[in-house]
Design a protein that fits this description.
Residues 1-19 form the signal peptide. This protein has helices at 25-38, 43-50, 57-65, 73-80, 83-95, 97-106, 111-122, 133-142, 147-162, 186-192, 208-221, 253-258, 292-300, 304-317, 334-346, 360-373, 383-388, and strands at residues 131-132, 172-173, 231-235, 251-252, 262-263, 274-278, 288-290. The protein is mainly alpha-helical and 389 residues long.
């Protein structure tokens, strides 16, 4: 079951002059056809590509209902990471060992990283979404919320169609247009698709080698640093300056070591590497050190909880022990979180939409207010903080 918001590059696109939207859907499709012909595709091919396109109200319903999960990290990670998923992941690494060896050689992306995405996105290919992809992309491009994001994806799908790698009538995937085992948008497939099994096509729905190789190339394109770690569980001293923690703040590994940061197992990375200390549920909960590759995860998904869980799961798939959950202070309910956001906004903080979600803006605002009030500035909101505000 696909559980997450659109993953790849949706927030990175830039509006273009062709971001028309709205109006009667048939007229909108005629505009797409005219643009496709103007871009150099012959009219017969364009007409064949768009012949079956339909507006899909279920796509809009899914779009309006999406939201970053409100569950805290411990609950979220325990729900997603099961023994079955770990066992199947380890079976997959054996089955596709030569593919993962090639990926590690060519892109420097560790197998656990791809296995975790594969598991979370589609349960190792078991459910890849049942929305018609062209209908989904056209519906979202016609909708006037983000046409600049989805309209270019339609023309990318047309290019895939011309290569024989997309069937507008039968290609299905996620509601936001992602396709295949690791859920890639058409433009990402054009840029990063790899024929991993040597059959002359890039088929991310049916070929695990194609999907895994393409996912690895995309991570490399997004800035993955070959052969470097991404996340590691650590122990933190009780007298740490908590205001230095959080994904937006970095020191070198050597500096963190001098402050008393120690790995729970293994060794920390090279002392000169920049890193952040991540406390998803405050100073009394789990603690991780995040290296530069951790930031690449946010190019794949914008949810902090999802990203941290995926990065941690990659470690588990490669043999890391279960994290020490500690004894974090109780968090806030959804209603309390919304009230907190309103109070933070009233104090001049940019927390974005008041939605009850502990996102990056709310975490930063919480940490700033904790510091101002003389509280441990670990960015974890509690009822006591809410009361103080």
């Amino acid at each position: 079951m696909r559980l997450f918001a659109p993953l790849i590059a949706l927030c990175l696109a830039v509006p273009t002059a062709h971001a028309q939207c709205g109006g009667p859907f048939p007229g909108f499709v005629e505009g797409l056809k005219s643009e496709a012909v103007a871009k150099g595709t012959d009219a017969a091919t364009v007409n064949a590509f768009f012949r079956s396109v339909r507006q899909d109200p279920k796509v809009l319903k899914a779009d309006r209902a999406q939201g970053v999960f409100q569950m805290p990290f411990i609950e979220f990670s325990r729900r997603l990471i099961s023994n079955n998923r770990i066992d199947r992941g380890r079976a997959m690494t054996r089955k596709y060992d030569t593919v993962f060896d090639r990926i590690e050689r060519e892109y420097g992306v560790s197998r656990g990283v791809l296995l975790a995405f594969w598991a979370f996105e589609t349960d190792y290919g078991g459910f890849q979404g049942d929305f018609n992809t062209l209908n989904a992309l056209s519906t979202l491009a016609h909708d006037c919320r983000r046409p600049h994001i989805f309209r270019p994806q339609i023309f990318a799908a047309l290019e895939l169609y011309k290569h024989g790698d997309f069937d507008p009538a039968t290609t299905t995937g996620a509601w936001a247009g992602e396709i295949g085992m690791v859920q890639m948008l058409p433009r990402d497939i054009l840029q990063n698709g790899i024929d991993g099994d040597g059959d002359g096509h890039v088929r991310l729905k049916t070929s695990a080698p194609d999907a895994l190789m393409s996912g690895a190339k995309m991570l490399s394109h997004l800035g993955w640093r070959a052969g470097e770690p991404w996340l590691q569980e650590v122990r933190v001293p009780g007298n740490l300056d908590w205001s230095l923690t959080g994904p937006g703040q970095t020191l070198t590994v050597a500096q963190w070591q001098r402050m008393g940061i120690r790995p729970r197992e293994g060794d920390l990375a090279s002392g000169g590497l920049p890193a952040s200390i991540i406390l998803p549920q405050g100073r009394k909960g789990p603690a991780f050190i995040a290296y530069p590759n951790f930031q690449v995860y946010f190019e794949w998904n914008q949810s902090f909880t999802y990203v941290l869980t995926a990065a941690y799961f990659a470690n588990r798939l490669e043999g890391a022990q279960v994290y020490d959950a500690g004894d974090p202070e109780p968090g806030l309910t959804g209603a309390q979180m919304k009230e907190l956001q309103r109070r933070l906004a009233a104090r001049g903080h940019d927390v974005g939409k008041v939605d009850g979600i502990l996102g990056a803006g709310t975490r930063a605002a919480v940490q700033a207010e904790q510091k101002q009030l003389g509280l441990p500035a670990d960015a974890w909101p509690t009822a006591a903080l809410l009361q103080r505000l």
